[in-house]
Amino acid sequence: MGKPEPIADLSDDERKLLIEGLTALRRERGQAWNLACDAADANGRRRPSLRQFGIDDIKRLARRIGGRNAHTHWLEE
After folding, report:
1. 72 located within any domain
2. Phi and psi dihedrals of 47, rounded to 5?
3. How far apart, in whole angstroms, are the C-alpha atoms of residue 16 and residue 13?
4. Mind listing the pLDDT tens digit of every residue in the chain (77 residues)?
């Protein structure tokens, strides 16, 4: 496997596509976390950690590549 290319070398189209993909992934992971919390609440269990769903990592990467919606909630998009 070759050395990964730096994010700075992305074209505008590649950056836009990556941001759109991260936005969709964040939305899906957020919905999955909400469902897991609902299930935990219904069964009297502790809610799962947000860390398990990688949402903070997704938001951090989106900010790194210039995602303008990096700070919005995944259900607001």
Report:
1. no
2. -65, 145
3. 5
4. 566 666 778 888 998 999 999 999 999 999 999 999 999 999 999 999 999 999 999 988 888 888 765 445 544 54
Residues shown for the chain: 77
Q: Would you state the structure tokens that stand for residue 1, as one six-digit string?
A: 């496997």
Would 44 be classed as within a structural domain? yes
Domain around 58 = 26-66
The DSSP symbol for 8 reads G
Short-list 18, 34, 35, CA closest to 69: 18
pTM: 0.74
* Tally of domains in the chain: 1
Question: CB-based burial of residue 20 (10 Å sphere; 0-12 exposed, 13-18 middle, 19+ buried)?
Answer: exposed
Q: How many CB atoms are located within 10 Å of the residue 21 CB? A: 12
